[in-house]
Amino acid sequence: MAEHWSGEQLAALARTELFREAPEDRLRRAAEDPGCLRERFAKGEVIYSPDRFRRCLGVFLAGRARVTKGALVMSTLERGAFFGAAALFHRRDRYETTITALTPCTVAFFTEELVAELLDDCPAFRRSYIAYLSERIHFLSRKVEGLTAPKVTGKLSRWLLESGREEVSCPATELSRRLDVSRASLYRAFEELERAGAIRRAGKTIVILDRRVLEIQNGGT
């Protein structure tokens, strides 16, 4: 018999992204289904890892956890956050990230079978689940873009090369806006290129001294 849910716990679940539009009676049936299990994790405990995970969709009822991929921190999960969609509806034997409790956590796990039932008979859940997956795609795309984008020195070098001139005049505030970087990062890039002998600055004017160095920096990451 599944553990009883209090009214407060059900209300908290109803406020989450996936269930806020679901009918109250369907939400209660899903929460009290034997396919929904709750588990507590101590601070520092691994909830999911590449070689230890469940075919479940998890939702944080309490606590915070960190999502990492190797040394890279992907995100922080808090109460109401979902995870585990990448473990559902395929037979791969590896999860892509590690989820570690930053504080004591309580997590509800909805089995793959229960999620499939909700997708079949609850249109509101189905729409929310599709929206959730779409947002995850955008989130991961932004992460990839951030990892593969050239560093500021590369952006500045590309801009100078594309100008086609030996001298370029542009205020630092305007140039930082064009390159979508902070002024502090832009000044560090200036200094790096000056030390490499690629440019010389004279006020707002940038004099290109060695295009070959700029081409090398443009190809860097």
| Fraction in helix | 40-55%
Contiguous low-pLDDT stretches (5 residues minimum) are none
Number of strands: 11
Overall pLDDT, averaged? Answer: 89
**Class based on secondary structure composition and strand pairing:** alpha+beta
Helix/strand order: HHEEEEEEEEHHHEHHEEH
Query: What is Rg?
Result: 25 Å
Shape, principal axes of CA atoms: elongated
Main β-sheet, spatial strand arrangement: 1-8-3-6
Distance between the termini: 55 Å
Counting DSSP H or I runs of 4 or more residues, the number of helices is 8
As an assembly, this protein is single chain
Fraction in beta strands: 15-25%
What about the largest sheet? 4 strands, antiparallel
Short structural summary:
This protein has eight helices and eleven strands.
Structural overview:
With 221 residues, this protein is an alpha+beta fold. It has helices spanning 7-14, 24-32, 112-121, 123-148, 152-163, 172-179, 183-195, 211-218, and strands at 36-41, 46-48, 56-62, 65-69, 72-77, 82-83, 98-101, 105-111, 167-169, 199-202, 205-208. The strands form 3 sheets. It has a 4-stranded antiparallel sheet. A 4-stranded antiparallel sheet has the order 2-7-4-5, with no helix packed on it. A 3-stranded antiparallel sheet has the order 9-11-10. The chain starts with 6 loop residues before the first helix and ends with a helix.
